[in-house]
Design goal:
Blueprint: H1 30-34, H2 55-69, H3 75-93, E1 100-103, H4 106-114, E2 122-126, H5 135-138, E3 146-150, E4 163-169, H6 181-191, E5 194-198, E6 215-219, E7 231-235, H7 237-240, H8 280-293, H9 298-316, E8 325-329, H10 334-341, E9 347-349, E10 352-356, H11 363-372
Parallel strand pairs: 2-3, 2-4, 4-5, 5-6
Antiparallel strand pairs: 1-7, 6-7, 8-10, 9-10
Helix pairs in contact: 2-8, 3-8, 9-11
């Protein structure tokens, strides 16, 4: 077998991700974090597909199911979890809680922003980006909105005065490539465009400051280990002023329990007006998961995850890019089949084999991948 990386995937043309601050003496260490997961978890290299819950997250979800089963669950029962999760996420990405909206899916949040694009203006997306960051904008073409797709390493240089929004994933799902966010922000500022960054494949291992972008989206079920159905949208005031909360429901009200019936509509004045009525049990798990994340040492997590990624790249003869997601060409799926046969949980995307390293992984997982693949 011959491992190679096509030219478009070269990491040499991409700016290196901003490293986190030096390791803190107070943050949770890797060994302590690993102990929070079930000891039965082995050879799971798929955080980029779906993260793993901690033992405490599973325990909280089971307890909530029991509460529901007894008939003791109520909206008030869940409001505390939602408020706590919102505040924890805000702290994680460096913005105020008043700039954070909650939802259930990335595509729903992107659709709200897509509906705000003026007719005859342009949205620039990454060629091959995850569909949740593309399809909502394509659905606006009937209004004269143009969607232009460019390679991720040409994103900054492709923006023009006609561009109203540049929408991109910070870390590409299919390849693990990391966009040069600083260059994109600078180019967007020059042409007067807004920025929307999907951080679903980044937050949890790669440092992200949501205040660097006009809007960010994160579905927390991957690197943050929350249940699927807990997602976040951050919106800065400049963009929030021109976006209509077209999905507004009772939970977007200034006082939600006064917003259950029409005809009067009094929406929240902060980012909560973009809230979607929550899938309640998911937020129990999200709150516990984010409490765990808040105890991490970000520098240690970044070093751990990218260190394993670099070690695998070295073993496979691939360029080391300080990435937690490692992919390589596998058009027939043969390598993915080999990994699966070896008891390794991995994934295949866009004709590539894909693995992701996170807290529960160790050097033994790297060795297992190398052993499973012929070289």
């Amino acid at each position: 077998m011959h491992f190679s990386v096509p030219a478009p995937l070269s990491t040499e043309r991409l700016a290196a991700p901003r490293p986190p601050a030096p390791a803190s003496s107070t943050g949770m260490r890797i060994a302590e974090a690993q102990a929070a997961y079930s000891p039965t978890t082995t050879r799971y290299l798929a955080a980029c597909t779906s993260g793993l819950p901690t033992i405490d997250t599973v325990r909280a979800l089971r307890a909530d199911a029991e509460i529901w089963g007894r008939g003791d669950a109520s909206p008030a029962h869940y409001q505390g979890d939602i408020d706590r999760a919102r505040a924890l996420y805000a702290g994680l990405v460096g913005v105020g809680a008043d700039r954070v909206a909650i939802g259930s899916q990335a595509s729903v949040m992107a659709a709200v922003l897509a509906a705000a694009v003026p007719a005859r203006r342009e949205v620039v997306c990454v060629d091959g980006d995850f569909s949740s960051m593309v399809f909502p904008f394509l659905q606006q073409e009937h209004r004269g909105v143009t969607v232009r797709h460019v390679p991720v390493d040409q994103l900054a240089s492709s923006l023009t005065e006609r561009t109203w929004l540049v929408a991109f994933s910070l870390v590409q799902s299919a390849t693990g490539e990391i966009a040069d966010a600083a260059a994109v922000r600078s180019a967007a500022a020059r042409v007067g465009a807004f920025t929307l960054c999907d951080t679903t494949q980044a937050i949890g291992w790669l440092p992200v400051d949501a205040g660097d972008f006009d809007a960010t989206i994160c579905h927390a079920y991957k690197w943050l280990g929350a249940p699927r159905g807990a997602a976040f949208l951050t919106v800065l005031p400049g963009l929030a002023e021109v976006v209509r909360p077209v999905q507004a429901g009772w939970f977007a009200g200034d006082e939600p329990w006064s917003s259950c019936y029409g005809p009067a509509m009094n929406l929240a004045t902060d980012a909560r007006r973009f809230d979607v009525s929550p899938a309640w049990p998911a937020w129990v798990g999200a709150r516990v998961a984010l409490e765990f994340v808040a105890r991490w040492d970000p520098a240690a997590v970044y070093a751990h995850d990218t260190g394993l990624g670099n070690a695998l790249c070295e073993g496979l003869g691939l360029p080391q890019g300080n990435q937690a997601i490692v992919t390589w060409a596998d058009p027939s799926g043969a390598d993915l089949a080999r990994l699966t046969a070896a008891g390794i949980t991995a994934s295949g995307r866009a004709g590539r084999a894909r693995v992701g390293f996170h807290l529960w992984n160790t050097a033994a997982d790297v060795a297992a991948v190398l052993t499973a693949l012929p070289r």
